[in-house]
Amino acid sequence: MKDHYEIEVKVLEVNKKELEKKLKAIGAKRLFSNRKVIQENFDNKELRKRNACIRVRQLGKDVFITFKQFKEIKGNIKICKEIEFQAASDFKTVQNLFISLGLKRYHRIEKTRTTYVFGSTTFDIDTFSKPIKIPTYFEIEVKDYKDIDKTLKLLGVPKKKALPWGTKQLLKYYKNLKK
Question: Buried-most residue among 25, 43, 111, 162 (CB within 10 A)?
Answer without folding.
Answer: 162
